[in-house]
Amino acid sequence: MTHQVISTLPLLGVEKFFCLHGGWLTIAHAAHLSGNYSMLISNASNALQCLLKRHSRMRTRLRVDDNRYFLDNLQYNSEHLSSDLFFSAIEITNESWQELVERRCNQDPYSKNGTVIFPLFHFMLLYNSQQSDDQLFHLVLFQNHCVSDGQSGFILIHEFLTMATTSNALEISEPLNTEILPLLGQLIPRPYGLLYHIIAFIGRYIFIRELRQLTHPRIPVKSIPLNDCQPTRFRVQRYKIRFLFASSSSSLYSKLHPQCRLHGVTLNGPLMGCLLLAIHHCFPLDDNTLLKPFGLGALFNMRSRLPQSPLTPSSVGYFAGTGEVKLK
C-alpha cells in the first residue's frame, strides 16, 4: 500500500526525544460508558472517516531516516486510510481493561524494520458481551506523543462519540480539511529579523558552556512561572528553572533499548524510573523512605500564548516542545 505524501515536517524537541533509538511514548485516554455499545461499532467507520477529513494530524505517519525523524502528512484516501486501521473492538474476557491498555501502550508500534509508525491514532472499544446492555464498557484512544497532547485526546474522543451516537450518523458528510497544522516552533514569532539564528546560536553556545561548568545536581526540582515580568515581544510564558537534568551516557542509552524490548516495556519507562531514583537519592526525606515533594510542570495553556496561530480549542496535533534534540 503506497501513501501519497503531501508535505513533511521534521520532528524537534520533546517529540523527537521520545522517538530516539526506536523509543516511543503512547498516550491513552479512556472514556467509561454504559449502554448499548453496538451503536458505536456500527457507526465507527463513518465517524472515523469524518475525523480523518477534519483533522489533518490524524492523516500522518512517523518516519525515521537514519538519525532524522519526520512527520509525513498523507493525502486523504478512504482506501489507504481504512477505518480498520484506526478502530478495533475487543471483548474483555479474563483481563481487565487496565491490563489491556497497559499492554497496548508498551507494544512496539514500529513497522518496516523500525522506520515507520502508522497509524499514530487508534480507537479501541473494550466490552463484555456477557453483560447486559446497561453495563460498563470502555472507549480508549491511543496516540503517539509526537502528534498529540492531552487536550487533543479529549477533543477526538468527544467528536467520535458525538458522531457515532447520532441517529443519522451514516448521512454525515465532512468536508476535507487540507490545512496542515505546523509545529509549535514555527508558530512562535522570531525577533531580531535575519539576525535571530545567529543570536540564538551564540546564546545556545553560552548556555551549554555554562551548563558544563555547573557542579550542583542537574536534576529538575521546580519550574516557577514568572508572572510579574515586564511585557515583551515573546508570547511564551517565562520560567525560572532551578536545576537541569542532563545525560551524557548516549552509548548506554542506545544499549538500553534492546533490553527494554526483551522485557516488553518502552524505553522511556526505565529512563523516567532512573530519573525518579536520582531525585530520590539527591533529595530524600529524613527517614530516607519517601521522595521529597517537589513541583514540576507548566501550569498554563500554550495555545492561548499563540493568538496569531491557527491553533484553536478544537485543533488536534498541538506540540509542546520547542527545543532541538541533537544526536551524537
From TrEMBL:
InterPro entries recorded for this chain? Alcohol_O-acetyltransferase, CAT-like_dom_sf
PANTHER family per UniProt: ALCOHOL O-ACETYLTRANSFERASE 1-RELATED
Q: Organism source for this protein? A: Adineta steineri
Protein's name according to its UniProt entry = Alcohol acetyltransferase
What Gene3D superfamilies does the database record attribute to this sequence?
Answer: Chloramphenicol acetyltransferase-like domain
